[in-house]
Give the backbone structure.
Amino acid sequence: MIRNSLAALTALGLLASAAPVWAETHTISPGEGAQERLQEALILAEPGDVIMLEAGHYTLTDGLSLDVDGVTVRGAGMDGTVLDFTSQEGSGEGLLVTSDDVVLRDFALENPKGDGIKSKGADNIVYYRVRVTWTGGPNPDNGAYGIYPVESTGVLVDGVKVTGAADAGVYVGQSEKITVRNSIAEANVAGIEIENSRDALVEHNIAIRNTGGILVFDLPGLPKMGGGNVVVANNLVVSNDTANFAPPGNIVAGVLRGTGIMVMANDGVLIENNILENNPTAPVMVIAYTEEYNDERYNALPLNVVVGANTYGRGGDDPQIEGGDMLAAAFGGSLPPVMWDGLGSLYAVEGTAGWSLNLMKPGGGFAAAQPSPLDVYAPREAFDRTGIGAPAELDERIR
């Protein structure tokens, strides 16, 4: 009897642990009532379930939300399944995710009034082949962020495309263990932004026609501090010459048109094997945070930034800085590709062309600059990539 009871309990335990075996697929089609049917599926889903969005155009009038762990939302392709928020009545995001182990793949959002897809506190989240587009082009009334994971551990962004965000196309904030790869950020203020985050890998992306291509920031006054340990490698960063259209007061409203890759106030960033072409202010910019702050936890200086071997084409030929024309003329018609404000610590491989403002303190501005050719040490040792990037198991979810 005891043996039979133990066997029964064991069987029940195995059944309970195998709950995803009974996972359901909830198929949603476009047409009348799609808003209600889709939101109901997002609410009633169980861990392991798949919400399948059939091909077509979905007209939505309100944002969507998901708060169930382990759900996959899957469409018929970023051009096949389109969630159209042009008639959205609220001002929130198109889709808000607040649960763990979620996969979002193969669909598009167009014209959300706020952010495209925001995930908050959602660990081990995957964005795969998702598109977010503001179809009217650059406009300060567009939503701020396209793909927007924040406060998460384990983030994989792969094969997405974002166009028209009034802040950042792909933004990862206050998170760790991050990979952003194989994605296109076009005609946003910031193409890809890693902010107050650690252990991030940004590779094999295209950042084109943004105001700034790829930004790695650390800002004061946020719950999670100490951004760094970031690798920006093997990206195509080209023609980032769109006029800044961020609303006034936004931190990226200060990003200069023509910025390729920008590092501000981070500790431990590697920039290598990128192709940078036609970034008219600076292909690479490394600077301190310049605004006043009262956060004792914050370090405003860029530290241990390493500029490795990159391919530099045209750039620095129309710098949007005070006295830029005269500076460019002094350097023979265009500024060298690497611009440093002279604060913190920067290393560059031998042969890297650059220039320094030689500022004595943050916030001095170009009026306090004493420009000279870049003179920094080569890296003392190989950059430690240990632990950088999203957990490997996240790849298994998109195979």
